[in-house]
Amino acid sequence: MKGLPDSAPAKPGKTRPEWVPDGAGAGFATSIVCGCRPAAGAARHPPARRRALTIDDYTAGVRAGDPTILGRAISLIESNAATHRAQAQQLLARLQAHSGRARRIGITGIPGAGKSTFIEAFGSHLTGLKKRVAVLAIDPSSSLTGGSILADKVRMPRLGVDPAAFIRPSPSGGSLGGVARKTREAILVCEAAGFDVVIVETVGVGQSEVTVRTMVDLFLVLMIAGAGDEMQGIKKGVIELADAIVINKADGDNRPRALGALADMKRVLHYLQPATPGWPTPALPASALTGEGVPAVWDACQAFFSHVEAAGILARRRHEQDVQWMHSLITEGLRTRFYTCLSVRDRLPALERAVADGRMPAFAAATELLGLANLPGA
User: Residue 279 gets which letter from DSSP?
Assistant: First the structure.
């Protein structure tokens, strides 16, 4: 543009990110946009690409606890590329034998309950006890753009620089239940890296956020004063699945209200069946801001693990979760095959219009599409 210096924004040029497979077609829409012209006379260098890792490299790096390779391994597992899926399956098969030794803890709560702040205080307490902690933080994806902010690590500045901790934010990607599509696989990778405790922080959207229950050993629900009365607590489906409940922000002027909410929650729990046989769900006060009550939460977690291991509940729960994992993979695989079937893709737009215009019942359209994919109708 006339009159603008060389550093003014230019017409964007596009390059592919380094993780896009060689020879990838138009199916990969992601690109890196150049935002400005380089200064006059500046040397131009092509962007450096990271060295491609082999399965041996991934395996050795994960087993050594290398945070960079661990992050790349999780990215590989989360990728939708066909070549990446094949590599991911090989990697998971190699790491399977080295998993299963960590304590798996799922933490959920309503927005504003202070989940990230509590996890930083809780994780820092654990690293202070010489434990290695991995945090898998699930960030909500926009229903309009599909993007995620992935700011959980920013809200954990102290834990983020702790050499004994690893924080991995991942987008929910539209998955229901507050977790990401590959959270189970990410847990396995973190366990193979030698972490003692793996914490899964869910999106935090409300009562239906229970999928994490199917992939962790201990399910902790974070609450605050004023989140609802006793009857609302009874109605919340997430409460009856909790192995521990923490009333956060029990500090300063809010402490009396938090203790009142704690008393209310204990009355609610009296009427609910425990989520884990033989384990009365405890309700505990804590302050992520001051750290008060955080050691008591870990003490309760240790008591829980002692109970479930001695009673054989932990082993049974994990076996049941593995079966649930298999069924979820079957569902995901069938969905992928259906929507990538060429006959379905060709016919789908016309049937969508027919259903939207009222010219065809949704049931009939679905049956036809399932037939095109060689799947039986409903």
Answer: B
